[in-house]
Structures are given as C-alpha cells and as structure tokens.
C-alpha cells in the first residue's frame, strides 16, 4: 500500500513533470487516505511549483515546462480549493488580475495566476478585454491587496495609464498595490505609468507580489 509520504513525493515529482492525469489521480488517492488538503498543498504542490520557478530562473526550464507544470497543479487545485476553503486555510493575500481592454492574450496571465495561487494567494481573474471601469467595479467588490494589469501588445500598454487614472478618479489608488506585466512591458515603462511593481515572468511576479505586500503591511503596522 502506498504511504502518505510516498504520495507526497510522487505528487511533487509528477507536478514538476507536468503530468496532469497522474497529479489528479494522486490527489484523489491522498484524499481517500484522509490526508489533509493543506498537507498536499504545502508539502508537495507549492514546493514543486517553487522548484519549477527556480529551474526557470536558472534556464533549465522554459515557458512550456512552466505551463504544463502549472496546469497539472491547477487540476489538483480544482479538487482541493473547496476543501481548503472548508478548513479555513489562510491565504497570504488577494490578487485581482485581468488583461487590459483591447487585448485578448491570456496564456501568460493564466500562468501567473496559477503560480500566485500555488504560492498561497487568492486569485480573482477578470479574464481578457477588461475595461478600466470594470477594474474599478471589481476592486470595490473584492477589496484585493494587489491588482495586476496584463498586456501582450505594445498597442494596449497605454491602458495601464488609463486604468491607473480610473483608480485615482475613484479614490482607490492608495488602497491597492498595482502591478503590471506582459511580454513587451519593461521596468522603465512600469515606472513611467506609475505602477508599484513589475515582473518579467510568472516566477518573479510571485516574489515581487510577496515583497510589495510585506512592505505595505509593514507600513500599516508601523
């Protein structure tokens, strides 16, 4: 009979390989053995995705490997999410994400979402073609810690500024951390439009988001 320790190790390994059917099967096996959902998350899935990020940074993994590992974890999360909600597992923060108006690209955004969720964030994905007023409406509704604007086209990057102006006008700019990203986006551009943070890839987004959130909370408690 497979032990809980063996299941955790296999869950880690198969997530790293991006073997979605096996990850899903192992998740069900673990739950049948009455293993805790948070154990699967914190002792296998999150460490595996962190290793994926580390390998990407070293140049050992590329975007396709990150995507398939992310999708494998996403399948497990579909099963675990309602169970984790029932156990009251604390999320580290709330992240509202969307691709800006005029842009329908979402592969990068979806990968970032999976990595954020894997790191313990609650992610609210507004999808693609998100207008400034929709961002404002959803920020008021969900009260996120961070909002992320994604753009894949140089022609839609000016929407970052339009979104920030909309937040300013609604009196929300100081309430939320704003991060921007996407293939053509640079740190210089993020600084120019007045964003709080930028990251070049999904792995870096998680680190930057955690860092910005920590700094904001330190200021609040200071």
Write the layout of secondary structure elements.
Layout: H1 4-17, H2 20-32, H3 37-58, H4 63-87, E1 93-99, H5 107-118, E2 121-125, H6 132-142, E3 146-150, H7 159-169, E4 177-181, H8 187-193, E5 197-198, H9 202-221
Parallel strand pairs: 1-2, 1-3, 3-4, 4-5
Helix pairs in contact: 1-2, 1-3, 1-4, 2-4, 3-4, 4-5, 5-9, 6-7
Protein name: Corrinoid protein
Keywords: Cobalt, Metal-binding
GO molecular function, one term: metal ion binding
Q: Your description of this structure?
A:
The structure is a single chain. The chain is of the alpha/beta class. It folds into two domains: 4-87, Orthogonal Bundle (Methyltransferase, Methionine Synthase (B12-binding Domains), Chain A, domain 1); 93-221, Rossmann fold, CATH 3.40.50.280. The chain contains nine helices and five strands, in the order ααααβαβαβαβαβα. It has a five-stranded parallel beta sheet with strand order 2-1-3-4-5, sandwiched between helices. Helix 1 packs parallel to helix 3 and helix 4 (63-87) crosses helix 5.
């Amino acid at each position: 009979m497979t032990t809980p320790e063996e299941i955790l190790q296999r869950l880690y390994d198969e997530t790293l390989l991006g073997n979605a059917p096996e990850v899903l099967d192992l998740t069900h096996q673990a739950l049948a053995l009455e293993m805790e959902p948070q154990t699967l998350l914190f002792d296998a899935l999150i460490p595996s995705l962190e290793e994926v990020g580390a390998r990407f940074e070293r140049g050992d993994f590329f975007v396709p490997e990150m995507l398939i590992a992310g999708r494998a974890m996403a399948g497990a999360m579909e099963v675990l999410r309602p169970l984790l909600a029932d156990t009251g597992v604390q999320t580290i923060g709330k992240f509202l994400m969307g691709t800006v108006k005029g842009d329908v690209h979402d592969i990068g955004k979806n990968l970032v979402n999976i990595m954020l969720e894997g790191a313990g964030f609650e992610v609210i994905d507004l999808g693609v073609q998100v207008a400034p007023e929709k961002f404002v409406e959803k920020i008021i509704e969900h009260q996120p810690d961070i909002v992320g604007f994604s753009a894949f086209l140089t022609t839609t990057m000016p929407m970052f500024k339009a979104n920030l102006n909309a937040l300013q006008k609604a009196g929300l700019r100081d309430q939320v951390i704003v991060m921007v990203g996407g293939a053509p986006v640079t740190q210089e551009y993020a600084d120019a439009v007045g964003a709080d943070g930028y990251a070049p890839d999904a792995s870096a987004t998680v680190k930057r988001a955690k860092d910005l959130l920590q700094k904001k909370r330190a200021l609040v408690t200071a």
